[in-house]
What does this fold into?
Amino acid sequence: MAYEGQERRKHKRIKVSFVVSYRPLEKEDDADLSQTKNFSQGGMLLTTNKAFGPGTLLKIFIRVPLVKGKIYLIGQVLESKEIVKNLIYETRIAFQNLEDEIERILHETVGSFLEGKK
It folds into this structure.
């Protein structure tokens, strides 16, 4: 059932699959690769192979079409919801302390996808 209440998100979301590498901030050797399910200037929904507790900080490298290399940022887990028992989780992440340049790139990336849908 789709949510029919008032939109409370600060930023518009786009349904896109960007390649993402992520790991808990404090664990150098626990990286994994995935794709976004949706994305905004303020956060993303990511499929992960494990549940992360709310508040967990993740080091994230993401590729977006407007940049040749990877973008590095920190995300805070809001929720990990089990989709397939002990295998697949949908993890909601809010970006933390974005540098101005990264925020601009994310804003332009979302904007370019929204304009393409008009």
Observations:
- The longest strand covers residues 71-84.
- The longest helix spans residues 100-116.
